[in-house]
Structures are given as structure tokens and as C-alpha cells.
UniProtKB/TrEMBL annotation:
<dbReference type="GO" id="GO:0019005">
    <property type="term" value="C:SCF ubiquitin ligase complex"/>
</dbReference>
<dbReference type="InterPro" id="IPR032675">
    <property type="entry name" value="LRR_dom_sf"/>
</dbReference>
<dbReference type="InterPro" id="IPR006553">
    <property type="entry name" value="Leu-rich_rpt_Cys-con_subtyp"/>
</dbReference>
<protein>
    <submittedName>
        <fullName>F-box/LRR-repeat protein 4</fullName>
    </submittedName>
</protein>
<dbReference type="GO" id="GO:0031146">
    <property type="term" value="P:SCF-dependent proteasomal ubiquitin-dependent protein catabolic process"/>
</dbReference>
Length: 470
């Protein structure tokens, strides 16, 4: 059976209680300050007396509280005051991604919050990390460049108010910058990206969908070397020459991960980048010899493969298991699984796999041979996601599979379909009995009534199991 929930740590209880109190007082101050027992200045003074690490933790907890309130009431009252009292000068790690990324806020409150952040960041001389996905602006980055020389990590992806001006200022004023996330910042041009690459000498990770094109076109004839550990080209098709890819591998000797939108032919060039551990590939083509060559040369170094393509041959999956014994994570999303050869696992393929996410688009039915190939032999699996047409996956089939491989390490199991998964309440109890580590079970497509779902949920609550169902 799943493990019981642990007694909530006193530390977490205290954090959440203080967070709720701060949010409640902030709401009172904005709705009726005359009746509130404390002023904004007094509340800010109380927060300033907290140790810095508690202050930083409290920012995250208060944002969680705001999110829960907003999800329930759609009200943003108190949000501005919370930031005003929490954004203290000694903060080193400012995690604001939850505030924007989890909630769709109105333009006026977004502007108010950005202005508040901009004002308070100016006093954070020791700031090292800013995570402000979705709603950062040039103004905030420019202030950081002038006032926050210790900054080493900035994540502002999906921010349409960040342009070349902001990242140029950041590169110029923050010499310790090591990690910059500007993925899907559509108003940043290749000029700004090239400026960052040229001036940020300590940059190790640049999450940017145009990185490959800029690196090759702007620096190919230079003598620059880079500390980059991640290489990416996903905005447009990556169509390089072999000598260009070899040059990238030479000037970026520390590369560990690669994300590409590429055709099969150019996949064969990936090994020229070095001993890549993490490979993420999206291609509209059918996998062929390019994929085979890449996998054979990457061999023992590859630990994670995330692959999205139109078609996968069965023999390529067998070859992947044979060539990459260190593989621990496999994400495969495809429209078709093909092949005439018998798909069999001799018992040693993918033996180290801990994450298996297999998604087949609804036009294709997933064969039980594919499920057997992995789930009968991957004893270390901790995360399993199967999304496809799986008419064969009945209670009897699942019970027989778990009898061979009980998935004792599995914490996350989702079996879903756009149509119907013929698993019933019986399989829920079977999985709960077989998987003692299970923490999340996705069964939205199963043959389970609403009453049965509530019955399971109540049983989990009554027995205090550490399990979430959805």
C-alpha cells in the first residue's frame, strides 16, 4: 500500500501560518487601513527582523497563499502590499515565478507588481537569483544591472516586455552572470543574444531558442571560447554544416545538454558536439540513419533522451537500449510505431530506466508489445506515463504485468487516452497494493464512475495515504 503521510513539519506549519497572517494583514491594509491594527511600515519592519533565508522562504509561501486565494475568489487584493513588505534589501534569491506563471492577472495589477518589484530590486545589493518568468520587463533588468552586481542567475522566459535593451544591460552590469533563461522572449533579437554571448564571460547556461543560429553566424570566425553547458536551436530548423557543428563542440567543450529542432540527416552531426548527456530532439521527419548514427556515437554518455517525431521503427528502440546502457530517462512522443521485426527485450535493455513517458497520437493504437517491452523489464521505474489508445490494457492484463514487475519504485503513474482506458476500480486497488512508493496516480480516462472516484479519494484521506489521484 502507499506510504502514510508524514506528520507535517512544525517548520512548514509555522511558515504557512505566518504567510497567511501576512496576506490577511495586507488585504486589510488595502481594503480598510483605518481599521487595521498595524501599518504597512510596521509590517515591513517586522519582516525585516527575520533572517534573510526565512525572508526568502516567506516570499514563496506567501505567493502560494495568494495563488490559493486567487484560484478560489479571483481577487488580487493584498498582492501589492505583500510584495512591498516582503521584498527586503537583504534578499539574495527572489523567486517570483509562481506569482505570474500560475495566475492570469489583469494588465493593471501586472503593471503595479512590476513597478513594485522594480523599486525594491534597486536596494537588493546582494541579489544573486531572479526568477520572474512571464512578466519581467526591461526596466527591472536595467535596475538590476546598476544595483545588483552579484547576480548570477536570471530566468525571465516568456516575457514579451524583455528586449535587447534589458539583456544588454544585464550582460554589461552583472559580470557574474552564469545562467540566463530568455526562452520564448519574442522581442529579443539575434543582436541582443550575440551581445550577451560576447560580454558575459562566465555564462554557462543560456536557455534561448535561437542560440545555435547566433553562435554559428556571429562567432564562427572569432577566437572566442565559451563555458556553455547547454546548446539549443529550436525556433527554426537547425541545418548546419558538419564543420560548423564541430567548431561549436571545440569552442564549447563543456556541453552536456542539447535541444534541437532538426531533420534526421542532421541528427548524425550531434555527436560532434561532444559527450552529450541530455538530448532533446523535435523533428517532423521519420527517424532514419541519422538517428541511428547519433545514438551509436553518443553511446554510454547519453542519460536522457526526449524525442518528438512522426514515426519510430521498433528496431531503433531496441538499438537505443543496446547502445545507451546509461539511459535513465526516456520521453517519446510520436504519431506511429512501426516495424516488422519482433519487439522483444532480452532482459537487459533499459535496465537503468527510471522515467518512461510514452505518448502516441490518437491515430495509432499502442501495441501491448511496446508496453511489455518496457514494463516487464524496467524494475527501477519511478515515473511512468502512457498516453495512447490502449484497448488491451485491462484489469487482468495489468495484474499479470505487475505480477512480473510490481513497480515497487514507482512514485508517478499516469495511464491516459483521448478515448477510453478499460481499467476499473480493481486496478486502482491493485496498483495501491503493488506500489508502496506511489504518490501520484492519473486515471482520468479510466472506466471509473464519479462515485467510485470519490470513494477512492475518501479512502485515501481516511487512511492518510501519501497519494494524490486525478
Amino acid at each position: 500500500m502507499p506510504q502514510r503521510k508524514q506528520v507535517e513539519a512544525l517548520e512548514h506549519m509555522c511558515f504557512m501560518q505566518v504567510a497567511k497572517t501576512i496576506h490577511s494583514l495586507a488585504v486589510q491594509l488595502e481594503e480598510n487601513s483605518e481599521c487595521c491594527t498595524i501599518s504597512t511600515e510596521e509590517l515591513s519592519s517586522m519582516v525585516s527582523a527575520l533572517p534573510a533565508v526565512i525572508n526568502e522562504n516567506m516570499i514563496v509561501r506567501v505567493i502560494e497563499t495568494i495563488h490559493k486565494t486567487f484560484s478560489r475568489t479571483r481577487r488580487t487584493v493584498g498582492m501589492k502590499t505583500c510584495l512591498e513588505v516582503l521584498l527586503q534589501p537583504r534578499v539574495q534569491r527572489l523567486e517570483l515565478n509562481g506569482l505570474f506563471f500560475k495566475m492570469r492577472l489583469q494588465g493593471t495589477i501586472n503593471s503595479t507588481i512590476r513597478n513594485t518589484v522594480c523599486v525594491h530590486v534597486a536596494s537588493m545589493r546582494n541579489l544573486m537569483t531572479l526568477n520572474m518568468v512571464s512578466k519581467c520587463s526591461d526596466e527591472i533588468l536595467c535596475v538590476m544591472s546598476e544595483k545588483c552586481p552579484e547576480v548570477s542567475k536570471v530566468i525571465v522566459s516568456i516575457s514579451d516586455l524583455v528586449t535587447d535593451q534589458g539583456i544588454k544591460a544585464l550582460a554589461k552590469g552583472c559580470p557574474k552572470l552564469e545562467n540566463l533563461g530568455i526562452y520564448k522572449c519574442w522581442n529579443i533579437t539575434t543582436i541582443g543574444i550575440a551581445y550577451v554571448l560576447k560580454h558575459s564571460k562566465n555564462l554557462m547556461k543560456l536557455k534561448c531558442d535561437q542560440l545555435g543560429a547566433v553562435l554559428i553566424s556571429d562567432f564562427r570566425k572569432s577566437k572566442n571560447t565559451f563555458k556553455l553547458t547547454h546548446f539549443e536551436q529550436t525556433q527554426a530548423m537547425f541545418e548546419p554544416k558538419a564543420e560548423d557543428v564541430r567548431w561549436v563542440g571545440n569552442v564549447c567543450p563543456n556541453l552536456e545538454s542539447v535541444s534541437l529542432f532538426v531533420d534526421d540527416r542532421n541528427l548524425s552531426l550531434v555527436p560532434l558536439l561532444g559527450g552529450i548527456k541530455i538530448l532533446e530532439v523535435e523533428t517532423g521527419a521519420v527517424l532514419g540513419e541519422g538517428f541511428v548514427e547519433a545514438i551509436k556515437y553518443l553511446g554510454g554518455s547519453l542519460q536522457t533522451l526526449q524525442l518528438s517525431c512522426n514515426q519510430v521503427q521498433q528496431e531503433f528502440i531496441v538499438m537505443l537500449g543496446e547502445c545507451c546502457p546509461s539511459l535513465t530517462t526516456l520521453h517519446l512522443s510520436t504519431a506511429a510505431l512501426e516495424g516488422d521485426e519482433l519487439l522483444t527485450n532480452p532482459g537487459r535493455l533499459f535496465s537503468g530506466l527510471t522515467v518512461l513517458h510514452l505518448q502516441v497520437w490518437k491515430e495509432t493504437v499502442l501495441s501491448n508489445k511496446w508496453v511489455d517491452f518496457f514494463l516487464l523489464w524496467c524494475y527501477k521505474l519511478e515515473s511512468v506515463l502512457l498516453k495512447a489508445e490502449v484497448a488491451f490494457l485491462t484489469d487482468h492484463y495489468l495484474n499479470a504485468l505487475l505480477a512480473v514487475n510490481p513497480l515497487t519504485e514507482a512514485k508517478y503513474i499516469v495511464i491516459a487516452s483521448d478515448e477510453y482506458v478499460p481499467l476499473t476500480l480493481e486496478s486502482v486497488h491493485t496498483l495501491m497494493a503493488s506500489c508502496p512508493a506511489l504518490e501520484n496516480l492519473g486515471m482520468s480516462s479510466w472506466d471509473i464512475t464519479e462515485e467510485e472516484f470519490f470513494e477512492i479519494r475518501d479512502d485515501i484521506k481516511t487512511n492518510n495515504y501519501n497519494l494524490t489521484i486525478s
